[in-house]
Design goal:
α2 packs antiparallel against α3 and α3 packs antiparallel against α4. β1 and β2 form a beta hairpin. The longest helix is centred in the last third of the chain and has 34 residues. 36% of the residues lie in helices and 25% in strands. The N and C termini lie far apart (106 Å). By secondary structure, the protein is of the alpha+beta class.
């Protein structure tokens, strides 16, 4: 082979190698080319209407929901609201979309901004006061496209939700707070919400609340008929039971001790008016402060609560203990006043002074002789001791009222306490 032929063969090989390399680079570039939104649309983009749900064979589009509750807190009885941190997922199938040609995995992550140009469920939180979207360190939401044209949209939210509470048997109450998700503009003829058949709801087991206990949670359907049509709705129900420990040690026990303290006046003598009146008034004022403290965190409702009934009965007991001393004071009357001095005897007349003296001497001598002859002493001849004075009788009646109160008040208070706790035993 000549030199020219060898040189020509080398040039042909170099050209072929370059062509193969360019082909490989082109295919690699196509494989690594980023996915565009128009790659998902039908060949005729006008056939895709983002305002119409992807109904198949005229059937309503089914959207599956999944909720993961990571926390419940900030339960405010006064404003009847609570806060929840959740992961909120929606899944639906849109057969109008095209799958990417280079999609090899089970799913592919899409740009979340594409949702603005795609159809998506118009769900909203029906009982939400405010919704906070998490953005640290990146916006906390993502969009997946599966091979069967199923779309998954998940977002992390912090919600402030309203909760209609009933305080009729407060603090033995159990509240049901809801998280409701409803369609805004699509009726059930076009779209239906359903819970995920596999895992509809997940609630963190480590949720701890200071005064309430999460005893139960479940999912339900809250579809409602409005004047404009039937709109689909789903809800999560949280059953919250109030812990009684706080109220037992900060309301019930102190209140009972105040009532018992008011009974100390029954052991104070009736004449000690300042001590008994001060004790009764102090107990009444302290109980009023305790009652106001127990109502500080609650809204002003028009019905009587269980704690109101208990505190009112305790207030009546303290008031009746104060009125008991009024009765004792009335019975005692003015017996403790000093007796009036006796009127002095009239002065004897001067004319009969000597004669009266002689008669008195003869009378004394006659009595002494008679006592000596009969053998009886002057002491034994004395009559029976005089009976109690009216003042002593009044004081005995006052003391008897105190003795009866020492038994009657504690017995009646114990009966009312037993009745109260038996009535609400099933709620403890």
């Amino acid at each position: 082979m000549s030199m020219d032929e060898a040189h020509g063969g080398g040039m042909v090989s170099a050209i072929l190698s370059s062509v193969v390399l360019l082909l490989l680079l082109g295919r690699t570039a196509d494989a690594q080319r980023s996915l565009e939104f128009f790659d998902l649309l039908p060949e005729d983009p006008k056939l895709y209407d983002k305002m119409r749900p992807p109904k198949k064979d005229g059937q309503a589009t089914v959207v599956y929901f999944h909720v993961t509750v990571m926390g419940l807190d900030s339960i405010d009885e006064n404003s009847m609201t609570y806060a929840a941190d959740i992961f909120f997922a929606q899944t639906w199938k849109d057969n109008r979309l095209r799958l990417p040609e280079n999609m090899t995995s089970e799913y592919r992550l899409l740009e979340v901004d594409w949702l603005k140009n795609m159809w998506r469920p118009d769900s909203f939180f029906k009982n939400a006061k405010s919704v906070t979207f998490q953005t640290m360190t990146i916006p906390n939401h993502y969009l997946w496209l599966y091979k069967d044209k199923t779309i998954l949209y998940m977002v992390k939210l912090t919600l402030k939700l309203s909760c209609a509470m009933n305080f009729l048997i407060y603090p033995h109450d159990t509240q049901e707070c809801k998280l409701q998700m409803e369609s805004l503009s699509h009726t059930t003829d076009e779209m239906i919400f359903q819970w995920d058949p596999d895992v509809p709801l997940v609630v963190d087991e480590n949720i701890e609340l200071p005064q309430l206990q999460l005893v139960k949670n479940y999912t339900a359907d809250c579809t409602q008929v409005y004047s404009t049509g039937n709109f689909t709705c789903l809800e999560v129900v949280f059953v919250l039971k109030r812990r009684l420990g706080y109220y037992l040690f900060h309301t019930y026990v102190p209140t009972c001790l105040i009532v018992i303290m008011s009974w100390v006046s029954f052991w104070i003598k009736p004449e000690a008016a300042p001590a008994r009146v001060t004790l009764g008034v102090t107990s009444l004022l302290t109980l009023s402060t305790q009652h106001a403290k127990s109502q500080a965190s609650l809204p002003p409702v028009s019905y009587l609560k269980a704690v109101d009934a208990f505190m009112s009965v305790c207030t009546v007991f303290v008031f009746m203990a104060l009125m008991e001393y009024c009765l004792v004071n009335i019975v005692l009357g003015d017996s403790d006043a000093p007796p009036k001095p006796a009127a002095p005897p009239p002065p004897p007349s001067s004319s009969g002074t000597d004669t009266a003296k002689l008669d008195k001497i003869f009378d004394i001598a006659t009595k002494e002789n008679a006592m000596l002859l009969s053998g009886r002493s002057q002491k034994s001849s004395a009559g029976p001791p005089p009976g109690p004075t009216p003042a002593q009788r009044a004081r005995m009646r006052a003391l008897n009222i105190d003795r009866v109160s020492r038994v009657f008040f504690p017995f009646l208070f114990a009966v009312l306490n037993v009745t109260y706790w038996i009535m609400f035993a099933e709620y403890i």
